[in-house]
Amino acid sequence: MYTYKSSEDRLVELKYLLDKKRPNELSELLRRTNPVDIVEFIEELSSEEALVVFRLLKKDDAVEVFAELESEEKEKLQAGLQEREFKELLRDLNFDDMIDTLEEMPAAMVQRILKSSDKQTRALVNEYLSFPEYSAGRLMTTEFVELKPYMTVKEALAHIKKVGHDMVTLYTCYVTSPTKEILGYVSLRSIVTNKPDTLIDDLMYQDVIYVHTTDDQEDVAFTFQKYGFTALPVVDKTDRLVGLITVDDIMWIIEQEATEDFQLLAGTTPDEEAYSKTRPWDLAKNRIPWLMFLMISATFTSTILRGYEYVVQAVIALNMFIPMLTDSGGNAGSQASTLVIRAMATHDIETSDWAKVVLKEITVGLICGLAIGIVAFLKCYFFDKVGMQVSLIVGLTIVGIVVIAKTVGSLLPIVAEKFGADPAIMASPLISTIVDSLSLIVYFNVARLMIPGL
């Protein structure tokens, strides 16, 4: 019997048995290995080795492993499996996993599979593919336990035993009417701990939280987070129960949405591929448009500088503080935008709260601006020795810049959301570019007001 300190030790042993061509021992060890670790193991193998390992898996493990593999690894296995084997594998997958696999396959192959499928399966596949991308309909599975209110606990348990083997979850069962309208839900715990003659109608909770097939996946993820569910029912436009979303699927969506927001915050086009698997050319392709846009946007700074060139020439000392002022504004704006984007993602604030948000950020900007402005004044006067007038200009400008930057940084994500765009688009690079231009305008206008003759 093998003993291991970690999953890494087990993966090393699996590779050893594979290299030594000891299939019986390898098969036995695979039976006692978590499918998640098997996925990790297969992803490190060549196409031929991956196929050998996959064929040694018992049926249930093979289905679970295939569902968890990345699209590239699925393609490797698909190429090695006979069409009959692959069709059988697809039939054994949960319906949502089968849809995900079909979406990644060549159209010709999908058509061949659908032609050999029964009428009901074809209808379900076509219905799934008709839902908007990134919607609840694309995430749901149709394998769930459905009970009727007139059932007794004894009848419900018999039904669960009959159909439960193929269901994605048994912990929550949904109670429906003859027309499949959702009436309530009941937990498996409640069923097994009550008397056999108790009616499901007496056990079910009627306050059902559900989502619609067309709801955005980000809203679905928020519902999961808010209520702490492990599963969430999905209804169609007539409120008929048509599917179920489980927490394992939504965890992947939460990770995907967070990754997309981070990519937008960094000023790059979102990429669904993992960083380690993305080619340098693809990474560059996603970054160039944003870098180009930001570079062109920055030309406004040059235009502003040319417009106020006479101010700089009159007081040369003003020029040395431009980087400090623009950096202060950019940092202040980025702080505000990041916090507002996060608050909107968690539904802590909505677009209708824009006035409260702006008022709060103006207050924060005044406090921060006064603190930074005083320090800037003291630095300019005592350390840089540029005189009282220029020191005051710099100090007052920083107060104005920070207030403006906080206001702009908080308002732009809300505006983006209002017009249906992702608030994360209004990220640090874009905020900094906008605030840089505003900072120069404020700086030179304060200088004009305070320096006679300009």
Overview features:
single chain, 454 residues, mainly alpha, three-stranded mixed beta sheet, elongated
Describe the structure.
- With 454 residues, this protein is mostly helical.
- It has helices spanning 7-19, 23-31, 35-42, 47-56, 59-68, 71-80, 83-92, 95-104, 107-115, 119-130, 136-139, 153-163, 188-192, 200-203, 217-227, 247-265, 280-297, 299-307, 309-314, 322-345, 354-383, 388-418, 428-450, and strands at 146-147, 172-176, 182-187, 211-212, 231-235, 241-246.
- A three-stranded mixed beta sheet has the order 1-2-3. A three-stranded mixed beta sheet has the order 4-5-6.
- The relative contact order is 0.06.
- The model has no long low-confidence stretch (mean pLDDT 82).
Order of helices and strands: HHHHHHHHHHHEHEEHHEHEEHHHHHHHH
Share of β-strand residues: 5-15%
Shape: elongated
Number of helices: 23
Tally of extended strands? 6
Q: Uncertain segments of ≥5 residues (pLDDT<50)?
A: none
Helicity level, as a percent range?
55-70%
Radius of gyration, whole Å: 30 Å
Question: Span from first to last CA?
Answer: 88 Å
Quick summary of this structure?
By secondary structure, the chain is mainly α. Helix content is 65%, strand content 6%.
Task: Detail the topology: elements first, then pairings.
Blueprint: H1 7-19, H2 23-31, H3 35-42, H4 47-56, H5 59-68, H6 71-80, H7 83-92, H8 95-104, H9 107-115, H10 119-130, H11 136-139, E1 146-147, H12 153-163, E2 172-176, E3 182-187, H13 188-192, H14 200-203, E4 211-212, H15 217-227, E5 231-235, E6 241-246, H16 247-265, H17 280-297, H18 299-307, H19 309-314, H20 322-345, H21 354-383, H22 388-418, H23 428-450
Parallel strand pairs: 1-2, 4-5
Antiparallel strand pairs: 2-3, 5-6
Helix pairs in contact: 1-3, 3-5, 4-6, 15-16, 18-23, 20-22, 20-23, 21-22, 22-23
